[in-house]
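User: I'm putting together notes for a lab meeting next week and I want to include a structural view of one of the chains we've been expressing. I don't have a solved structure, so I'd like a prediction I can at least talk through. The sequence is below, exactly as it appears in our construct file.
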Amino acid sequence: MKPAAAPRLFAATSEPQVLGSTVHLITLRFLASAHHPPPSRLPKLTVVGAPASDGSYDAVFLNFEDMVDQGLPPVFEVYLGVPPCTAPSDETYAGALPYSSLHAALDITEVFTRLRCKPEWDQKHLQILLKPRNAMRASAALSIGRVSLYTEHGR
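Assistant: Thanks for the context. Below is the predicted structure for the 155-residue chain, given as structure tokens.
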């Protein structure tokens, strides 16, 4: 049996993120060691558990670390690659961020793969848009210590 691939850090925020009742935009800058070739030279991405071709991603995870909540903050919808002044869509939807734990991870393999294949793919940054489902109560707060992007490949 082949050992599981170790997750590889591709991007991370350097400052805590404090969320409120409005849309919050986070820009992740890809690390210099992260390899994001132009769409015309992308490796074949595969489904988790399927045989992987060389250089493919088996999984891509967006991590929300060291979350601290106060009161009852709303659930936040997470969208990827939404350009400024553009409404989020189902195509860019990555999942819902639960606030009830210290750490949350979203498997964003499908949406990340789809975005990387587009000609407008930004090879240096990933925009993450967090949109509250409901208005945040005055007594509520949500802080995220770090947002990071990890990949697994070559299983």
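A couple of points you could mention at the meeting. The two ends are 10 Å apart (CA to CA). The helical segments are 109-116.

User: Perfect, that's what I needed.
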